[in-house]
Fold these 2 entries.
Entry 1:
Amino acid sequence: MTSERLIETLATGLVPVRPRRMSRDALFLAAIGVVELALLLMLGGARPDLMRVMMMPFFWWKLGTMGVLAAIGLATALRSLDPTMSPRPGLRRTSIAIGVALAIGWLLDATHRSAAPLAARMQWHDGLRCMAVLAVLSLPMVIGLAMLIRRSAPTDRSGTALAAGVAGAAWGAFVFAFACPHDDPLYIAIWYLGGGAAVALAARWLLAPMARW
Amino acid sequence: MDGMRDEWGELMAAAQGGHGGAYRRLLGELRQWLTRYYARRLPPALVDDAVQDALIAIHDKRHTYDPARPFRPWLAAVARHKWIDRLRAMARERTDALPDDIATGGHEEAVVSATVLRELMGTLKPAQADAIRLVKLEGYSIEEASAKTGQSGSLVKVNIHRGLAKLAAIVRGRSDDE
């Protein structure tokens, strides 16, 4: 087919489209997040001592870290859906934020040093379960981002897929922070980071082909 | 170019609203821009395909253009994305399969000649074989062959003469046998 013929074909069958708006995509993801968090709280998923631990710095460090990472990740993923935007600066900011969060956690841990031995603080059984729950709670946001990726035009497939994975994992961890009874910085650093990394890497491999266009 | 960019943005905004005429005009102008873009980046044989790929991508993703923003960066991003895709495809398909019935020259004669020559050279003394190989086969001068073999220039000439005479006698003998 010649280019002239192609242009004629494309123009003849033209249908109106609604231009993509980042704010609309953000609202879509916010709705997913609000529904997920509301369901968790309404269905009794919150930890029973939530009111008490809200007075503790560890809880706020955990919640704040996951919230900031989710915000950076979501902004990065959303921006990278535009063909003119790259996810790389956002991913670098995410790495810096993780480093800062770990440093703050280490400081908190140093000022409230636990007397328990290291192996006991790790709590392998609970940790593995936390990783699995975190992955499940990441799914709604990852699926929502996958839907947006499919209908947009990212030009850095692997970067956008990774950013979506980071955003989904961080949001899953944020929601899980209301349910997880553990606030030990060492536990959070290992199991939340491990679970989040697993989700991000899985999303990197699974979503990248969906970003092809 | 700014005026053109704004005009293209307006045409695309109209196309997003379903205006076929504006879209036809826009794609026609973009086709020329894309042809120049890919002509600088791809082999000539691939330019038309790349232009059509880009036009289809622009059509499929036209809803991702925000009319509130400049059109040119969006167009350049789409064109560059399709260009990189094509480079990846070229890297994956670096070789083309040749047809089974392609005509090629035979190598039997050259192989037989090389084998016979090696066999004949093996019948000579090493000094004669070296002199003939260097001067007659590899093109060295008498002086260069002398330096390489350690023989004097006169000896190189003598060895060539005697070696060739011996080879001629062997070949004549084989012809008589046949």
Note: DSSP finds eight helices and no strands in chain B.
Entry 2:
Amino acid sequence: MSAAPGIDLQAIPDRIRTEVQRAIQRSIKGVKYLSTSGPSLGSTPKDVLAVRGTMNLYHYRPIAKEVYRVPVLIVMATTNRGYILDMVPGMSLIEFLLKRGYDVYMLDWTAPRPEEKSLGMEDYVLDFIPDCIRRVQRDSGETDVSVIGYCFGGVLSLLYGSIFNDGPMKNLVCFTTPIDFREMKLFHNFSDRRYFDVDRLVDSVGNVPPEMILTSFEMLRPASRTASQVQLWDNIWNDEFVKSYRMFDRWATDTLPLAGEYFRAITKDLMWDNKLHNDAMSVGGRAADIRNINVPILHAVAEHDHIVPYDAAKPLIQKVGSTDKEEVVLKGGHVSLVAGANAVKRLWPKIDSWLGVRST
Amino acid sequence: MAEKSNDPAVIWQTMIGEMEKGFNTFANQAMTSPEFSRVMNQVGGVSAGVQKQLAELMEKYLSSMNLPSRAQMVGIGERLQIIESQLNEITALLRQNNIGGGRDDQPLTPRPPRTKQPPSSGGGSA
């Protein structure tokens, strides 16, 4: 009897031994997985500069001997927690920026309380961001501030920059920021104005519950949660895999509710009327035309982003009025663009090389 | 060593990956139809209404049992977080007083000079 081509019979006992060892490890580590919590996240030392309801402003303690003149304010997406950018040492964009000599602040969000359901787009763009910028200026002693916005944090930063286009924002970096909401095809269909009664939803629930936000994200890839759990079981013997899985899984499921009026504005102005793309957006009665933005701008987008597809993000660089503007398309998805091994290799060095020369 | 193409573990992982991709693609196609949106929003609307009524009922029940609801516990948790944050601010102010002798123009913690230059211009350190 002869072996099938490509099969090395001598290697089979080793392979069986390895699989048996892994099966034993799976049982032991599976129990350990259920009885322990994941790694501690977001632990880079920081000071809380301000808390106003859902708004939190942190200052990360510098670790370099000297820092760039211009401080950096990171504006986090309103649906998720900021610790995606500060996972664990070695996997933290914040730590990376601090080591490279940036003075880093973050505008992060906590769940809006029931009484904050009336917060609207104007509260975020005309109040929270300008307030944080003022506090960063006061704390750092500098007038100029660079802004980094992630996903919808990028949209808020763009709206802010288009209204306050005479400063003090010096540079703008956006990650995976949607402009043409028609191109977010599934979200667009989920919120089809013929069938989705946003007024009824907001009027009945107040703040939009996080479970609803999480479900709509998971529906974009309905098989992925089950597949990732199968992968976890396959690799549960591998401590590094499990650590990484826990970090990302915890973050992905730690979704925030959205303030009711803010959600209503996103649905009507952006999803239905596509006002940002149609140059018709206004916030609190003030025109927010991104063609007015004239500061240096970098837009980093992911090749395989299932949340903000490239076609939704592409118009940003085409539209802004800046002469110093660059789009960079990197391998990865919506999250792996900014965090994890892929980001360490690709996005982080790009941010440093782009922002460093513009931060003096 | 067995070739990768014959390794059962690799075959299994590839199969899972392909099934995931295939199902996601199939589901995404189905979810772009207006019919899907109509059904989803009908079900979602009913479910949101039922959930809201259930939550109100549960709140009344818990109140009658003299027990706090989940929302109240979350509220307490968030207020505790705010108290912690304010304690942080007070601590930072105390530290500021120690460092700057109470002067308002001093930062909360000692700060490095803002003199760094990008590596290409010959100055600065990583």
Note: DSSP finds 14 helices and ten strands in chain A.
